Amino acid sequence: xxxxxxxxxxxxxxxxxxxxxxxxxxxxxxxxxxxxxxxxxxxxxxxxxxxxxxxxxxxxxxxxxxxxxxxxxxxxxxxxxxxxxxxxxxxxxxxxxxxxxxxxxxxxxxxxxxxxxxxxxxxxxxxxxxxxxxxxxxxxxxxxxxxxxxxxxxxxxxxxxxxxxxxxxxxxxxxxxxxxxxxxxxxxxxxxxxxxxxxxxxxxxxxxxxxxxxxxxxxxxxxxxxxxxxxxxxxxxxxxxxxxxxxxxxxxxxxxxxxxxxxxxxxxxxxxxxxxxxxxxxxxxxxxxxxxxx
Length: 294
Fold this sequence. Notes:
Blueprint: H1 10-13, E1 25-33, E2 39-43, E3 48-62, E4 65-70, E5 73-77, E6 83-87, E7 93-101, H2 109-113, H3 115-118, E8 123-126, H4 131-143, H5 148-170, H6 173-196, H7 204-211, H8 215-226, H9 230-248, H10 253-259, H11 265-276, H12 280-287
Antiparallel strand pairs: 1-7, 2-6, 3-4, 3-5, 3-6, 3-7, 5-8
Helix pairs in contact: 4-5, 6-8, 6-9, 9-12
């Protein structure tokens, strides 16, 4: 099967998809380990795409909207939506990409996935360690294998994924769904706020003003969506930024600590070692080893 099918108009792929007897038609389902510094230049596909983060983080921009995606995040975008991806130096990025279409069938996918997708929202939620993550991995596994059995399984698994996303959107009914959509948008706003205030950090009053929620509600909802509290998330992105600076900037350790919001280098050193299992100098040593003389 050509690995370029996902660039074509849906009708142009059908001649090469003889094993598919009904939609949805899959033109790509793979797991990608991005090399350090990798990025995807702006492009437009003519089909639907699901993009799931298995490990690490990346900045994913769709139609001018920026999504800082992390472990467990799932994005969805439709035909002709311009998008590009940028990884962060020193930060891994492993993702699952699924590209598909429904041929000439007029399929109301936005009704299935929820009105927010029709309105331009691309963030579907965080599914780290949930059943949907296993389904995506299962889809990749069967897509790699040839034969009608695996083709049918691929279609079956993809439809179960879409149905699970639909069930998650509809679980609380139309009114609650609108509230859930608004909550999702606010949580992304909170995460973007933390990303942009890496050095100075945040106060819970800042987040309360940003969302209109109480401190406890913010913590509960943020943890539910991203698997950690806002404070834990801040620590995580600070440490990832510290790794990036250690690799690229040439700054001293004390300067790096200051750049990521730690006045006390000893406190920074302790939390770095506690979270990563090594000191920053040990981390650098694993990356910059002397090349032995030949």
